[in-house]
Design brief:
By secondary structure, this protein is mostly beta strands. It is 5% helix and 42% strand. It has three helices and 29 strands. Bound molecules: alpha-D-galactopyranose. The site of alpha-D-galactopyranose (GLA) has 11 residues, from strand 24 and strand 27.
């Protein structure tokens, strides 16, 4: 694998941002930014050999700084929601930034997605790291966090997260890439399968109620067998209404990097994505809140123009008592891995 880099811009507060390009032996490549550990492009051949960029992103740094939606970024310190922004650990209450209606979402107003990380790279991959001080967006504990990306000759993107703290805190790290296996247009015809028998039920603000829903009892939410993302999305189902589409945490049947968590396939391009992860859940988000905007190379993005498979710990896990617990304590080391493996079916 070859790593090259170029300046990508300067943030509004004067920090230089670099774009790294990881190219494998097949000529397929990933472009990463040290701003938000962002996956900006992921370019690989479709079934007829046409190089296709299958993630959403922007041309300029300013757009990454100003637009919402977390395109391609790593989100943290705690991905997804914490009810009322109230974090209670060992009887001590911490008030986090409340940035999503009544709740805390994706690390607050300025989460990990809006920070410049330190980059170290070699021919095997690139590691982004940062120090998140105690008090950042309200969190307890000084956190040293790293995200390592590797891009194999077999078109597998591996994301490895590590973190250590000096006081008990909540950590939940994910990547918020929007996949569109055709490069543009709708994803409603993509076939999706998720190896999950349950979801965590949401309230109308997309916060877990603490209850689980059996997918056998809820066909609209059920992806145990592959079906088009859009097939049931307009069904008058309360879960879909709460998320304005899919925006739900699927409880993986058997997490682990040697087992498949989810599979996404586009019949139009012949590209398949297989997701494997050590994390217990995956948030399926059908880009319901992605307002119309101009993306890379003049491509227009629309709601439902991407699928996010955000591997994660369950939302609001501490307050709801979900296991495994996302509390990280001094002396412990968080280690999570997610692999997105791509292939294209030759016609
Ligand atoms: C996650 C959330 C959504 C939304 C998107 C980004 O998927 O669950 O509600 O915030 O991120 O817009």
């Amino acid at each position: 694998m070859e790593v090259t880099h170029r300046p990508f811009g300067v943030t509004k507060d004067g920090q230089s941002v670099t774009e790294f390009r990881l190219t494998n032996r097949q000529g397929a490549y990933v472009k990463l930014l040290d701003y938000g550990c962002t996956v900006r492009s992921l370019v690989l051949p479709d079934a007829v050999g046409k190089m296709t960029d299958i993630v959403l992103g922007y041309d300029t740094l300013r757009e990454y700084e100003e637009r919402d939606g977390y395109l391609g970024a790593v989100v943290g310190r705690f991905a997804n929601r914490i009810g009322g922004g109230k974090l209670v650990i060992d009887g001590q209450e911490y008030l986090l930034a409340v940035n999503d209606g009544p709740n805390h979402l994706h690390g607050g107003f300025r989460g990990f997605d809006r920070r410049v990380w330190k980059a170290d790279w070699n021919e095997k991959g690139i590691t982004f790291s940062r120090f998140s001080p105690e008090g950042e967006e309200g969190y307890p504990g000084n956190l040293q966090v790293a995200v390592r990306y590797e891009w194999s000759d077999e078109n597998e993107l591996t994301i490895h997260y590590t973190a250590e703290t000096d006081a008990a805190t909540a950590v939940n790290l994910t990547n918020h890439s929007y996949f569109n296996l055709n490069g543009s247009g709708s994803v409603l015809e993509h076939l999706l399968q998720i190896n999950a028998d349950q979801i965590t039920e949401n309230d109308p603000d997309c916060l877990p109620t603490g209850r689980f829903i059996e997918l056998a009892d809820c066909p609209a939410m059920d992806f145990r067998t592959a079906k088009p993302v859009g097939r049931d999305i307009e069904i008058p189902d309360q879960n879909l209404r709460n998320g304005k589409g899919y925006d739900h945490n699927y409880v993986l049947r058997s997490p682990g990097i040697d087992r498949e968590a989810a599979r996404l396939y586009s019949p139009a391009s012949g590209i398949t994505l297989v997701c494997r992860t050590t994390q217990p859940g995956v948030q399926l988000y059908s880009a319901n809140f992605l307002t119309e905007r101009c993306g890379k190379n003049g491509v227009i993005y629309y709601p439902r123009g991407g699928v996010c498979l955000e591997t994660q710990h369950f939302p609001d896990a501490i307050a709801k008592g979900f296991v495994p617990s996302p509390i990280l304590r001094p002396g412990e080391r968080l280690e999570e891995t997610t692999i997105y493996a791509f292939s294209s079916e030759k016609p």
